[in-house]
Amino acid sequence: MRDANLLLGLWLATLIPSAPVMAASLKAGVSKVDITPPAGVALWGYSSRKTPAQGTLDPLYARVLALEADSTRLALVALDLGRTFGPASIRRIREMAKNSSRVDYVLLVASHMHSGPAIQDEYASGTPAWESTALEKIGRAIDEACQRAVPARLGTGYGVTYIAHTRLRLNTDGGRLG
Q1: What structural domains does the chain harbor?
Q2: CA–CA dist 81, 78 (Å, integer)
Q3: Of 21, 101, 106, nearest to 62 (Cα)?
Q4: Which of 3, 33, 123, 169 has the maximum number of C-beta atoms within 10 A of its C-beta?
Q5: Which of 53, 57, 59 is nearest to 34 (CA)?
Q6: Cα–Cα distance for residue pair 75/25, rounded to 1 Å
């Protein structure tokens, strides 16, 4: 019996390399949208700061990578924010993506930068206008990335990553603009 199992195992092992390999075709698309809030918004990561943002040094973006394999779509959204949006806002983005672009999965990641707007899981007086506007823009950017999808291949490589720091300017009055 042991020899029969061994022979069966060897025979099955010879079939594996000869089996046709089926791979899903991959498509990828990208987009980028400015999500910079207006002046007057409280900044995240500035516990000692007593005033809201007074201007903008650099714009904040949401960058979208849409991937499609067979009929499954995924959108990866990289945010220039201190943290991702709260659960209700994330649900809103996912619903927009599902309804407009048939996106199955939406992943959001934030760069953890300290010169972006303060974000909360819930707001006592409702979602701030700048966040609602940003969510709408992100929804459209996901749709745009899906529309731009072209055949793509995955690969590996190596290189150098240059990591920068968030710019912060001290004003002559001791306040910060960032």
Answers
A1: 25-152 (3.30.230)
A2: 9
A3: 106
A4: 33
A5: 59
A6: 17
